[in-house]
Amino acid sequence: MGILSKINSPSDIKRLNTEEMRELAAETRKFIIDNIDKTGGHLAPSLGTVELTIALMKVFDLPQDKLIWDVGHQAYAHKIYTGRRDVFHTNRQLGGISGFIKPSESMYDSFGVGHASTSISAGFGFVMAREINGEDYKVISVIGDGSITGGLAFEGLNNAGVSGKDFIVVLNDNEMSISKNVGAVSKYTTSLLSDPTFNRIRNEIWDYAGKYKLGKHIRSGFARIEDSFKSLLTPGILFEKLGFNYIGPVDGHNIPALVKVLENIKNKVSGPVFLHILTEKGKGYKPAEQDEKGIYHGVNPGILALEKKEQKGSPKYQDVFGKALCEIAEKDKRIVAITAAMKIGTGLNDFAELYPDRFFDVGIAEEHAVTFAAALSCRNLKPVVAIYSTFLQRSYDQIIHDCALQELDMIFAIDRSGLVGEDGPTHHGVFDISYLRIIPNIIIMSPSNESELRNMLYTASKLKGLFAIRYPRGSGVGSGFDSPFKMVKLGKGEKLTEGSDTAILSVGNITNQVISACVILKEKGINPAVYDMKFIKPLDTEILDEVYSGYKNIISVEEGSLAGGFGSAVMEYYNSKSFNNVNLKRIGIPDKFIEHGSTDKLMKKTGLDYEGIAATVEEFVKKTLL
Question: Of 366, 367, 422, 452, which one is the catalytic site residue?
């Protein structure tokens, strides 16, 4: 770390010459790769934005100027250059720094992020706050090409473009290749459009024309000529029509070119500016550069060893889901699959290859995904919408208004439910039970193993209704991932073990922790009956009645928010039946955001591992004996 060891703040970058900045970029890439090999994290996105980060910090005055990142997984270099180099080895670890931008962590982190498509709206908020408060600073929003597919990004562009206020949006185009124009003509065009002389002459013609009666026609003609020129040589006409001065595409790995263009924009170009840069995802690390399957987007520790050996273990829930859906779709031609830029993450690779005409990746546009699927259902198809729990939150209105209200026939495959680990509070899927179960006309299931996931998906495909199946990140228990399909009886749970005095009602993958907890409890003289409830809605009221009449102590366990969750549903049922003296203890996620860290450590910290569950049950049972 020759130069990198001397970079403790963005001001240190300002003192570097071009060759030193290139050396810094190379050192930073090696530093990121070495650290992610130990901690895991978002590798490819951050490798692609190193030169952009250096150029931004070279030109702008942070933290006075406000740099707003989108998603945040492309901002590792930003974190390293803003005083977190020496603690970067704690990235995404329990008690360490976050893998995303977090204002409470650094004064250089202007706005907290984790979900996509937010940077333009947030950046424009900073712009207008600057105007209202009479302050003087630049605002730069960086957005990735995937994130700009989200409707929120265009809502922000639409609002900011008509304002006429100084605002810089940088599109990091690393995959979609909005434009292929990266040759000599493009370089000339980019240089021209950002050149101060060109912009001065354009503004003088505009002002001059306004002084004469025919000025309106002169301006209109000039605008048409400029639009035609830009649409011929650049892809920027869309952004121009939204009110932005489009500049680009620019080579996002050419530091001198980036610095020159950014300096021109900063000092000579007024109003909203849209800078389009082209970068290579995974730049500097060949496996990530050549990765067509997205393996190196977000990686686990030991990524360097991945080149030498193939990881083994039980199949992940997402792959069990994907395999089952392919099997079902082979016989049921109504099945279509929809995802929001998460084909790999949701396990739909094989489905996309086998049934390309029935697979739709709509980009980072969860709201559109749900309404689009709703319309497919209206035409007698059976849409399966596969979205992570935390991202499904974005389409809440569509679930209610477009799906449930119309009593449609469709399936939500809710991946990454519960605690997801190192990505932290922006990605934990702990709210889906609470926000879904209050919706009429919805059936919510949660499997405790791979076989149950297959059977629940099969049942939802055969029956008519609005279904939601929530399942966790990672591997299951290692059995039943290719078992024959069986129909599941709606709203029926299963008694797993007999017991005395105490009954534990669990739902979902955490049932396996409950079974392990019972081993400890039996050693302490407590022998609970365990019920795998399987359904959050409708509840198995026969089991609830049986438990109320047969057991002194009742414990509900869920890997979801206690507020409004499965345990709350049990309480509400007993209240509706006017059952008195219900001795119920609820175990789940407390009413706070859970930090980042490995899933095992987070489960232990929240008391949801088998030892924590056993301790809570033991304490509760002992209190009832007093």
Answer: 366
**Is 454 known to be catalytic?**
no
CA atoms within 13 A on the CB side of 56: 31
> Quick check: 608 and 556 in contact, CB under 8 A?
no
Supply φ then ψ for residue 620, to 5 degrees: -65, -45
What global pTM score does this model have? Answer: 0.84
Q: What is the DSSP letter of 201?
A: H
* pLDDT tens readout for residues 215-262: 666 666 656 656 555 554 456 778 888 899 999 889 999 999 999 999
Instruction: Please report the domains of the chain, with CATH numbers, ordered by start residue.
Output: 4-287 (3.40.50.970), 317-472 (3.40.50.970), 494-625 (3.40.50.920)
Contacts of 514 (CB under 8 A, 6+ apart): 504, 506, 530, 557, 610, 613
Q: Is the pLDDT of residue 511 over 70?
A: yes
Return all residues near 268 (Cβ < 8 A) that are at least 6 apart. 196, 199, 200
Catalytic site residue 577? no
366 counts as catalytic? yes
Residues 6-19 pLDDT 10s: 999 999 999 999 99
Q: Catalytic residue among 85, 138, 281, 537, which?
A: 281
Cα–Cα distance measured from residue 466 to residue 460, given in angstroms and rounded to the nearest whole number: 8
Decide which of 314 and 555 is more confident. 555
